[in-house]
Amino acid sequence: MVIFLLTLALANPFTDDIGDVIAPGARKIISLSPALTEIIFKLDLDSKLIGVSDFSDYPVGAKQKTSVGPYTKPHLEKIASLNPDLVLLPIEGPDEIKDQLKRLNIPFATIKMETLDDVGRTALNLGKWLGKAEAGSRFQKNWNEELGKLFQNTTNSMSKPSVIIEIQNSPLIVAGGKTFLDEIVNKCGGNNVFEKQTGYPKISQEFLTIKKADLVLLADHFETDSEKRKAISSWSMKVKELDPDLVARPGPRLLNGAREICSAIRDFKNAK
Amino acid sequence: MRNRSVFVIILLFVASIATLLFSLHSGVVDLSWAEIFNYLCGKKITGQAALLLGSLRLPRTAAAFFIGASLGTSGLVFQTLLQNPLAEPYTLGLSGGSALGAILALAFSLEPTSFWVPALSTVGCVSAALIVLSFGQKRINLESRTLILFGVMISLFLGAVVVTVISILSPTKIQTALFWLMGEFGTTRDPWIILIGPLTFLCFVFLLLKCPALDALNLGETRALSLGFSPKREKNILFLICTLVTALGVSISGLVGFVGLVSPHIARKLLKSSSHRDLMVASYLTGAVILTIADSLGRSLTTNTEIPAGSIAALIGTPTLIFLILGRKQNASAE
Question: For residue A7, what are the domain limits?
């Protein structure tokens, strides 16, 4: 068995982000993340996409794909009935889904999308696995170039405004360290107030007021409360709303999200 | 009266078979009755239908059936032992204990979760029952009001601990924990039913043999003593068996409330009898039917996700019970 797996691994260089071997050339794929869905469309692989998770609403074509439910609890019968060759799972998804897919012998790939590099690398991998290696490689090259251009003039700046990116208001969740948003803030010349707390920590409103950031960026999908905005304005120097679809999804549109964040930090610096 | 009992039990048995078939047929993917019957008869069917039936629908149908049956049976025994119509398997703090075990398995990321969540929830459930019983022993010989009081207190305390632990879990773990607390089927825990189903059935057979003791306890402890039963001994045995049955069931499904409360009442209304042998069989089948139907509806009503079986059970069970109670009162006043 060990020899067989070793031979398989040597013969097939494709592995996902947790080291599981991926069989190339899948023709029927299901994406359980809106960001992955966007990358698949960007690589012109949408003809292979037979199912998507809820909130996969971009581009327009994604809305026409069969929905298999939320990624946290997809409808397993629906996935099984679509008979996919490959299911793409975000790494942060519950282990229960992976265990269920294993039990049903449905192949899946676990994908990490935590840093900016991960986005380009995922596009490259998907291109290789699904027969569009060139498109994947082109995406990664373009991704790196555009980000490089964006961050070129901001990294050496001396003054670094403190920034909070609020992902959700109730409960209050912010972008912490080791996330692509933390990376963007740093590379745009800001300083993420919650960089020492990794991931997306849940914090108290009081703690937020103690931190007194120079700039608060709101990327809350579910709430644009003017009262809350006023309250934050009383202790923060500047508040700006961001398009949550652009900044919360580690997909192709994150480039525009990064531009929004950089522009907010630059405007703050210029206004000082 | 005997004829009525036989008729009702046959009716419930037929309803159980129909419910099992309904459950195998329910789901977002249409399977023909021919495919289902061929599968059950061991004949060859298409790969996709075999996958859906064998790996998904059959384990969850069996799980819903046996767990519903277990909750129905233990609900009846707890109502008799505690002499309280509101008693159910969770009255003695069993839900709190199970929940704490399951949530701790999630909090400490014990792998594989499909083993550790059920294992720790079983340990938690049995431990909570033992704590309540040991408190109860120190007071007046397992007196029912004292037991209920301790049970409610332990339940509240463990519930608070559960909420505290949940508040520090990561968002994905919170989601898993919440679904467990709502009672769900269709998880990787379902296949455990191949082991737990027969175990709970054996417990049911044991409880059936204990029906004379239950009939005696129903008349009061003094009467039970005069009939040759030791109330304390019988209560201890019955409590522990019912705790085990509940713990095993809950370990697969998570907390399914209501079924244990309502099944014995429906059985009593249908049978109009106080014989525990008849009530036990009827509660077993009623619990099984309610939870199997609830799970079937929960996975068919919406196309993209599933509604937890526990909430559907309450949605269909409450009006059914109210209807039965009102129907009986109207009959009584007409007479």
Answer: 2-148
- Give the tokens for residue B333: 């006043």
Indicate the residue of B56, B112, B173 with minimum beta-carbon distance to A76.
Answer: B56
| Other beta carbons less than 10 A from residue A221's beta carbon | 13
Choose among A47, A111, A64, A106: nearest CA to A82: A106
- The predicted pLDDT at position A4 comes to 54
For residues A113 and A186, state if they share a domain. Answer: no
Q: Are residues A176 and A134 in the same domain?
A: no
A12 lies in the same domain as A95: yes
In a domain, B246, yes or no: yes
Cβ atoms of B154 and B96 within 8 Å: the answer is yes
Of A77, A100, A104, the CB nearest to B28: A77
ipTM for the whole predicted complex goes beyond 0.90? no
Q: Mutate which of A81, A179, A204 to test chain B, going by most B C-beta atoms within 10 A?
A: A81
B186 neighbourhood in chain A, CB within 8 Å: 76
Q: Note down the domain range covering B191.
A: 2-328
| Amino acid A11: pLDDT | 55
- Tell me: do A23 and A141 sit in the same domain: yes
User: In angstroms, what separates the C-alpha of B27 from chain A's closest C-alpha?
Assistant: 7
Determine, yes or no, domain membership for A154. Answer: no
- For tokens 């059959």, name the residue: B58
pLDDT of A117:
95
A-B CB pairs within 8 A amount to 74
Query: What CATH number is associated with residue A219?
Result: 3.40.50.1980
Q: Is the pLDDT of residue A185 over 90?
A: yes
Residue B298 has pLDDT above 60, yes or no: yes
Residue-averaged pLDDT of chain A: 86
CB atoms within 10 A of CB B285: 26
User: Cβ separation of A94 and B305 shorter than 8 Å?
Assistant: no
What's residue A7's pLDDT? 56
Per-residue confidence (pLDDT) for residue B283, from 0 to 100: 96
Report chain A residues touching chain B, CB-CB < 8 A: 54, 67-70, 72-78, 80-81, 83, 92-96, 99-100, 103-105, 173, 199-200, 202
Domain tally for chain B?
1
Asked whether A8 and A21 are in contact (CB, 8 A), the reply is yes
Tell me the shortest Cα–Cα distance from A66 to chain B, in angstroms.
10
